[in-house]
C-alpha cells in the first residue's frame, strides 16, 4: 500500500496531517527517515515507524501457489476454472491478483498478492526477474539449441527475445527434458522458443520466479502464505 494510506490507518486521517508528519521527519522505514507519501510499503516486510512507534498492518497478502493444469490464470473465465477458485473463501481479498501468467496447460509456481505496485515492479522488464521452467519436448535437442538460446531466439516476425540459459537434463530420439531460464515473459515465449529450434513443448512447469522456488511439498492446487524469509526477499521490489 502507499505510505499515506498506512498513515491514514494510524490516526493521520488528513493530507495535511500526513504532510506535516513527513516534513517533521517523524516517519522512518528501516531506520531511514522518509518524506515521500507515495512510497509502496508493507509493515510485514519493513520496520515502519511513526514518531518512534512501530506501525502494524497485515491487510496485504502474499501466496505461493502450485498451479495445476486445467486452470487459467485469470480472475474469471467463462469456460475454465481459474486459479482463484482454488482459494479458500477466507483467503480471498479485494484486489487479489496473480503476478504474471501461466497457460492453462502449464503448471508450477504462481504468486498471488493484493499489493498491486509490487506486482508491477516484479513484472517490469527493467528488473529482469529470472524465471526457470522444467520443459519436455518431442525432439532430441543438442548443443545447437543451447547455442541458439544463449544468443537469443529470433522469431519469424522479426522480433528477438533476450538470451536464455538452456540446460539439457535427458535426451533420446524424439524426446528431451530440459530446464530453461529466461528474464522476460512474452506471450507463449517458452513454447515459441522451442518451436524455433524444431521442438514442440509437451510438458511445462515453472520451478522458480525471481527469488522464489516452488515448494514441492505443495501438491498441484495447494498454496500457502509466503514465509517470513520469503517476505524479506520482496524488499528490493518495494519503493
UniProtKB/TrEMBL annotation:
CDD domains reported in the protein's UniProt record: PseudoU_synth_RsuA, S4
GO cellular component: cytosol
InterPro entries registered for this protein in UniProt: PsdUridine_s_RsuA/RluB/E/F_cat (IPR042092), PsdUridine_synth_cat_dom_sf (IPR020103), PsdUridine_synth_RsuA/RluA (IPR006145), PsdUridine_synth_RsuA/RluB/E/F (IPR000748), PsdUridine_synth_RsuA/RluB_CS (IPR018496), RsuA_PseudoU_synthase (IPR050343), S4_RNA-bd (IPR002942), S4_RNA-bd_sf (IPR036986)
Top-level EC class: isomerase
EC number(s) stated in the UniProt entry for this protein: 5.4.99.-
Keywords in alphabetical order: Isomerase, RNA-binding
MF terms (GO), sorted A to Z: RNA binding; rRNA pseudouridine synthase activity
GO biological process terms, semicolon-separated: enzyme-directed rRNA pseudouridine synthesis
Transmembrane segments: none
Source domain of life: Bacteria
Location of the RNA-binding S4 domain: 1-43
Residue intervals of the Pseudouridine synthase RsuA/RluA-like domain: 62-195
Entries under PANTHER family matching the protein: PSEUDOURIDINE SYNTHASE, PSEUDOURIDINE SYNTHASE FAMILY PROTEIN-RELATED
Family affiliation: Belongs to the pseudouridine synthase RsuA family.
Entry protein name: Pseudouridine synthase
Amino acid at each position: 500500500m502507499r505510505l499515506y494510506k498506512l498513515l491514514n490507518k494510524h490516526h493521520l486521517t488528513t493530507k495535511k496531517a500526513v504532510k506535516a508528519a513527513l516534513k517533521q521527519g517523524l516517519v522512518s522505514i528501516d531506520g531511514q527517515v522518509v518524506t515521500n507519501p507515495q512510497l509502496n510499503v508493507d509493515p510485514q516486510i519493513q520496520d515502519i515507524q511513526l514518531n518512534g512507534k512501530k506501525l502494524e498492518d497485515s491487510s496485504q497478502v502474499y501466496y505461493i501457489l502450485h498451479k495445476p493444469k486445467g486452470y487459467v490464470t485469470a480472475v474469471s473465465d467463462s469456460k475454465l476454472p481459474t486459479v482463484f477458485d482454488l482459494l479458500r473463501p477466507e483467503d480471498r481479498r479485494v484486489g487479489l491478483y496473480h503476478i504474471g501468467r501461466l497457460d492453462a496447460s502449464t503448471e508450477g509456481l504462481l504468486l498471488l498478492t493484493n499489493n498491486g505496485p509490487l506486482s508491477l515492479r516484479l513484472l517490469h522488464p527493467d528488473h529482469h526477474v529470472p524465471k526457470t521452467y522444467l520443459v519436455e519436448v518431442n525432439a532430441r535437442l543438442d548443443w545447437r539449441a543451447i547455442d541458439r538460446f544463449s544468443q537469443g531466439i529470433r522469431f519469424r516476425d522479426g522480433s528477438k527475445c533476450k538470451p536464455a540459459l538452456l540446460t539439457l537434463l535427458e535426451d533420446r530420439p524424439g524426446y528431451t527434458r530440459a530446464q530453461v531460464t529466461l528474464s522476460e515473459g512474452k506471450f507463449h515465449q517458452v513454447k515459441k522458443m522451442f518451436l524455433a529450434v524444431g521442438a514442440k513443448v509437451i510438458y511445462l512447469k515453472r520451478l522458480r520466479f525471481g527469488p522464489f522456488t516452488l515448494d514441492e511439498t505443495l501438491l498441484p492446487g495447494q498454496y500457502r502464505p509466503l514465509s517470513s524469509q520469503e517476505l524479506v526477499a520482496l524488499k528490493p521490489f518495494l519503493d
